[in-house]
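> tool_call: predict_assembly(chains=two)
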Amino acid sequence: GRELGMLDSLLSLGGLVLLWDSVEWEGRSLLKALVKKSALCGEQVHILGCEVSEEEFREGFDSDINNRLVYHDFFRDPLNWSKTEEALPGGPLGALRAICKRTDPGPVTIALDSLSWLLLHLPCTTLCQALHAVSHQDSCPGDSSPVGKVSVLGLLHEELHGPGPVGALSSLAQTEVTLGGTKGQASAHILCRRPRQRPTDQTQWFSILPDFSLDLQEGPSVESQPCSDPHIPPVSKNARARTRKCSLGSGQRGEHKSCRGW
Amino acid sequence: MFVELNNLLNTTPDRAEQGKLTLLCDAKTDGSFLVHHFLSFYLKGMGRIDAGVNLTVARERGQLVFLEGLKSAVDVFFQTQEEPHPLQFLREANAGNLKPLFEFVREALKPVDGGEARWTYPVLLVDDLSVLLSLGVGAVAVLDFIHYCRATVCWELKGNMVILVHDSGDVEDEENDILLNGVSHQSHLILRAEGLATGFCRDVHGQLRILWRRPSQPTAQRDQSLTYQYKIQDKSVSFFAKGMSPAVL
C-alpha cells in the first residue's frame, strides 16, 4: 500500500536526503538501490565517488543503468598526491557546482558517496552552504530558466561526526533515513519534513536484491504518525549518533548509539 | 596460522579473496595473535614456503618487506635529510599528511626489475595504526593514508590489507574513535578481540566478534556477524561458542 512505499518514493520529494548508516548496517547498498531507481525513472544521475572505486560502485548494475550514471572520480587521488593534471579541478564542491550549472532542465539526482568524507575534509559551513544551494536549486528566486527537481542523496556514517555537524545537516534535510535492523533483517527509519506540515516518520523493513532492486517487506511496522519533536539534539557531548524520541520498529536503534567502533 | 580461524572465516591461503581490507581490533586484550595469523596466512599463500613460515627466509626472498617504525623514527632525527623519509612527519611541527609514508609503501610494492615475481598479489599489514595518532598525526590524516593505500593495494594491484587498531575502551579518545570507526567503514571484514567483561579467566582468554561487510552483491538475509570465545595455547588458538569452553563442559 501507500505506507509501504515510503522508502520507494523517497526521491519524489526532491531536496536533500540523508542516509545514515553504521558499521553494523552499511548504507551503500541502499544508496545504490535509490540511484538505480532514479536512473530507471529517466533522471540524470551523478555520483560523487570518494570512498569506493568506480568499478565497485557500478558493480551489480546492468548496462542500461550504468549508461545513465555519470561517475565523478574522487577515489583514486582525492587529495592530488600524484600531482598529475588528472585531478578534477575545484574538487568535489567544484564538481557539485558544475552539475548544477547544467543546461538540461530535467530532474537530476546527485549521490554523495560519501557525505561523511566531504564533512571530514571540508569546513562544515562551506559544505552546508553548497548543499543548501544545490538542493534548493529548483526554487531559486530570480532565475528565469526553469530547472528540474534536484535530489541530493548523502551517505553519512553516523559514528564519525559530532553533534554540531549532525544538527547542521539535519536542519537542511528534507528526509532522513536511518538504517538499522535485527536478526539479519534490515530496516529504515524514515523521517520526512514537508513544508508547512508536521514531520512524519515511519519504519520500513526491506531487503536489497542482487540487482539492487528494493524489496519492501511487511514487518513489525509502525503506523505513520506525526513526530512530536522533529529535531532532538544529542544529550551528551559523547553522543556521536543522533538520538530521537520517535519510536523505532526494530528496537535496535539504541544499540549502535554507543559508537565505540563495533 | 590458526586453522580453526580459517574455518570460521571460511577461507584458506590458496583461495583467499583479493582486493579486501580486513580490520583487526582489540579492546581490553592483546590482539597481536590475529596479526600473527594473517602474516602466516598470506606468506603461506605465496606458495613457496614448504614447511612452516620462516620470516627471515621470506625477507631474504623479498616476499616480506618490513618497515621497522621504531628504528626508522630514530633514523629520521639522526640522519641527514637527503630525500623524503617515510616518517617525515616526525620532523614537522604540524604533521600535515602521511604522503611520504604512502610513497614508501607504493615504492615497496613495485615489482623488482627482472627476476621472478615476488608475490601473486601484495598484502599490506599495518601493526599498528593507533601508534600514528600517538605520534601526533590527526585521525583524518591517518584515514587519508589508509585510503590511498587501499586505492593502490586493493584496487590497483588487487591485493589485500590487514590493519590493527586498538580500541581505547572506556577512555575517551575522540581521535581514536574517529580512526577506528573510519577504518571500520572502509573494511570488508572486521575481527574484534575483546577481553571478558568478568575479567581474567584461565580457560577463556577473550571473545572474538566477526563482522562481514561490503559484499560485492547484497543478499536478502545473511548472518552478518558471529561471536566466539577463544583460548590461546602454545601454538594454536581454539575457538568455541559462548559458554562452551571445554573446561566448562
